[in-house]
Amino acid sequence: MFDLYQIVRPNILALKPYSSARDEFSGHASVYLDANENAYGSPLSQNYNRYPDPHQHVLKQKISAIKGMPVENIFLGNGSDEAIDILYRIFCRPGADNVIICPPTYGMYEVSANINDAAVRRVALLPSFELDVHEILCATDAQSRLLFICSPNNPTGNSLHKEDIEYLISRFPGVVVIDEAYINYSRQSGCISLLTEYPNVVVLQTFSKAWGLAGLRLGMAFASTAIIDLMDKVKPPYNVSENTQQLVSQALTHIDQVNEQIRSTVRERNALTQALSSLPIIQKVYPSDANFLLVKVTDAHAVYTHLASHGTIVRDRSKVEHCENCLRITIGTPEENQTLIAQLKAYSI
Ligand SMILES: Cc1ncc(COP(=O)(O)O)c(C=O)c1O
What we know:
37% helix, 13 helices, four-stranded antiparallel beta sheet
């Protein structure tokens, strides 16, 4: 029942994308006078006076080799936040279409909806933090364009049941966006393999978490070639800087170091879970598949203020659904985690 071209905004289907100087001449030349760049160079030692590759060929090939996904199925953006915004611009007619989100979840799905004037249908997770599959389908209608599923979910930390995700994919009339920002920390495998079976899936991943490159801004979307072509058509031509393309390419050669950091984070996640669970002010530490813990305390605001006054900042999530008196605590280094525990012990006294 899924027909991609029925749900793409007509203006996007008709869009003639910007053709950059680098698109019109992609061979090798010795004199480039085609892009109004500064021919005299940059104040930095690199060739930053030149526009970057709009198609990120070299970087995509390296990512393709690591992910086992063809280049044609990969979109790269200025963080996954850019991919989220582009999906809205492709699929949601402002003032007409709606999207479904499952709070508590990552805040940008709703902010991007508001920016793009898409109606938001909020179907809360069950108290177990699993998807309310039935209610999601009840909230879906012919104008439902995107369903956002975040797994492992921010801020709850759990991975969502894969059977639920697949059930929804097979019934949702629009595109199911599975945000796997925290997948490298998860015990459960990701959903990229579902792409071979379903045409209506976009999987988002990012270099901001396990790869430790939040400052460079690089997000990935994996999807059918038809969806990736639309995303490429809508993106600003030079959305990933030369600096980011070069540095992420370098980082990809350090995969062992990244895997070691993931193991350390998971070890610390277990240690912190145990240490927190023994404190009297901690009522519950929710199981986590991510690099943070959701923790229910006796008085979230008071604990937050106490920690902040001692120089430690955590995220107060107590205002969001099912998260009364909950703090979200990122896993730090062993020293940072010990500092946190010592400060919490001082509060308990
Ligand atoms: C679930 C989720 N998706 C996406 C992002 C943003 O990723 P990026 O830095 O690639 O824009 C975050 C950041 O916290 C997140 O929690």
